[in-house]
Design goal:
The protein is α/β, with parallel strands linked by helices. The protein has two domains: 4-20 and 235-430, UDP-n-acetylglucosamine1-carboxyvinyl-transferase, Chain; 22-221, Enolpyruvate transferase domain (UDP-n-acetylglucosamine1-carboxyvinyl-transferase, Chain, Alpha-beta prism), CATH 3.65.10.10. Helix content is 29%, strand content 27%. A hairpin with a 4-residue loop joins strand 8 and strand 9. The chain binds shikimate-3-phosphate (S3P). Shikimate-3-phosphate binds next to helix 5.
């Protein structure tokens, strides 16, 4: 078990390029695997989650070459080219890996089994199993298919197109249904209560697939071939940048530049929320990469005030809410986060985890069933904190430690490797 030790920062300074976007990295490998032709991927996240997806795709008969950190060549086998895996596909800690792959496998003409670590096998899988069964796949799993391991007998040539009305705003659910829908004869559609991240829709288009996006409903005709785009450049992950956006906003004297960050509007809730709290964030050099908007982010310290977070904003900042809670604990007034019950079924119960850890540092936090209320104070006190087996809780508490007085220890931080290899090195370079 590794721990992280933090001491008060005198202000963050300098530049960083966070690792590649996790959502895009999973998708890039899966889509390139079923595309026709070869895809050279740059900026791929060499984290445990996404490397597990590479392993799984290799077990499906796809050749993936690695060229140092972030460089991959995927030799696509076409929609019908995957092979039945000889062993169990282990997606480790990754909900995205498991749910998206289950969608793809539901369309195959073969049998496969998906599993994960002690945290992933506790997370809800019924949300994808139910629509994929309606599309014709035969899926079993623990608790009648609500929990992994999942055994998938793909529907092969008999996949049925469906119009799915998802009860949750989840890009993972939307993507699983669309990936299975690639194998259907007709048009598959998914609608959701709030807009979730649209990386699947954008990347399918980048591979030449026609996808219709009408706000809360997306639809796509099946049996469209994916054409390898040649090169696919993945930008840095805004969810990783988020830790430094918050740290620079709460540690007096900070001034940093975060380079090459994906600023897809379905992901920029963190920027909107921090800006509404008074943060000084400037987007520079806006450009586009692989169908995704990208910018450099300049952040300087400024005293924050409280924010109200609910509704459509929630899915746009879902993975950043723990670190937004850290910002709120340093802001003037009471921040209220609502409509975020999904946080309870992420890598940990993130409402209970962040509320409990912030309280150890003297923060005033009240848990709500679907969020929390946080009353800010000038400075928190260093403490010994737990990661709860969750990379984002570990990194959020590290940021709180930079702004606190006294020393902070975050225990069991190896989980950070799932999404942010090099985190400690970047933090040390910028913060002290
Ligand atoms: C992801 C979608 C989100 C997010 C997760 C990555 C994706 O989950 O929390 O970290 O890549 O599709 P849901 O959309 O299921 O809430």
């Amino acid at each position: 078990m590794s721990d992280l030790h933090l001491r008060p920062s005198r202000g963050l300074a300098g530049e960083l390029t966070p690792p590649g976007d996790k959502s895009l990295s999973h998708r890039a490998v899966m889509f390139a695997a079923v595309a026709e032709g070869k895809t050279d991927i740059t900026g791929f996240l060499p984290g445990e989650d996404t490397l597990n997806t590479v392993k799984a795709v290799r077990m499906l008969g796809v050749t993936v070459e690695e060229h140092g950190p972030g460089g991959l060549t995927v030799h696509g086998r076409g929609l019908e080219g995957l092979a039945e895996p000889a062993g169990v596909l282990d997606l480790g800690n990754s909900g995205t890996g498991m749910r998206l792959l289950a969608g793809l496998l539901a369309g195959q003409d073969f049998f496969s089994v998906l599993t994960g670590d002690q945290y992933l096998v506790k997370r809800p899988m019924g949300r994808i199993v139910e629509p994929l069964r309606r599309m014709g796949a035969v899926i079993d799993g623990r608790s009648g298919g609500k929990l992994a391991p999942l055994a998938v007998r793909g529907a092969g040539g008999n996949v049925r197109a469906i119009d799915y009305v998802s009860p949750v705003a989840s890009a993972q659910v939307k993507s699983a249904v669309l990936l299975c829908g690639l194998y259907a004869g007709g048009v598959t559609s998914v609608s959701e209560p709030h807009k979730s991240r649209d990386h699947t829709e954008r990347m399918l288009r980048f591979f030449g697939v026609k996808v219709k996006d009408e706000g809360l409903q997306v639809s796509m005709a099946g049996r469209q071939a994916l054409r390898a785009p040649g090169t696919l450049e993945i930008p840095s992950d805004i969810s990783s940048a988020a830790f430094f956006l918050v740290a620079a906003s709460i540690v007096p004297g900070s001034d940093i530049l975060i380079r090459n960050v994906g600023v897809n509007p379905t992901r920029t809730g963190i920027i909107d929320i921090l800006t509404s709290m008074g943060a000084d964030i400037v987007l520079e050099k806006r450009r586009e990469q692989a169908g995704e908007p990208v910018a450099d982010l300049r952040v300087r310290y400024r005293r924050l005030h409280a924010a109200q977070v609910s509704g459509d904003l929630v899915p746009r900042a879902i993975d950043e809410l723990p670190v937004i809670a850290v910002a709120a604990a340093h802001a003037e007034g009471t921040t209220v986060i609502r409509d975020a019950a999904e946080l309870r079924v992420k890598e940990s119960d993130r409402i209970a985890a962040i509320a409990g850890e912030l309280r150890k540092m003297g923060a005033v936090v009240r848990e709500l069933p679907d969020g929390m209320e946080i009353t800010g104070r000038e400075r928190l006190a260093g403490a010994v904190c737990e990661s709860h087996g969750d990379h984002r809780i570990a990194m959020s508490m590290a940021m709180a430690g930079l702004a606190a007085f006294g020393e902070t220890t975050v225990k069991d931080t190896a989980w950070i490797e799932t999404s942010f290899p090099g985190f400690e090195r970047m933090l040390t370079q910028l913060a002290y």
